[in-house]
Amino acid sequence: METFYKKLLENNKEWVSKNLEKDPDFFNRLADGQQPPLLWIGCADSRVPANEIIGAQPGEVFVHRNIANMVIHTDMNMLSVLDYAVNVLKVKHVIVCGHYGCGGVAAAMTNKQFGLIDNWIRHIKDVYRFHNEELNSLTVEKERFDRFVELNVIEQVLDLAKTSIIQGAWKNGQQIHLHGWVYDIKDGLIKDLDVTFKDNNSLSQVYQLDL
Ligand code: CO
Question: Smaller CB count within 10 Å for the chain: N or C?
Fold first, then answer.
């Protein structure tokens, strides 16, 4: 354990010298500020590191991660990240990236009690209920699990579009595109679910805010 911990600090020093070798101004430029074009909302899963899987450099992605990449409207952490990304950083894209084999989604498929986290997982169960018919029609468990992961991403993209933050930005003429992706842990590839929202007309009327 101790060696693992020490190794991390050694890795950091190596990383710094490698970057300075390539570009002596690397850290000076980053210290000047950030203007990432992208907000990433992903799962906290250790196997889905946002920057690495899309080849992004420091300064290119604003990142928020939680269990099962959820967009929950009472989550002050998520809302603060979204507000800052949209209204201050003026990101052009928001990507919700789920992943196959997601433990949070798997937990939501069971009736097991896990403790405090049940309150978080309940939001994922709501997604199951919205798509009850389609999911129950998939009799192969793996297929049902994979589709649940995809539908959860789609619902989280919708939840993003429902926020006053995103609708307000659209109203002000800001170009923000919302996307839903699923990462496959088995081969490293990302599937674009082609849920693309760029204005609030893509929302059911009941969610459209008069801003
Ligand atoms: Co996950």
Answer: N
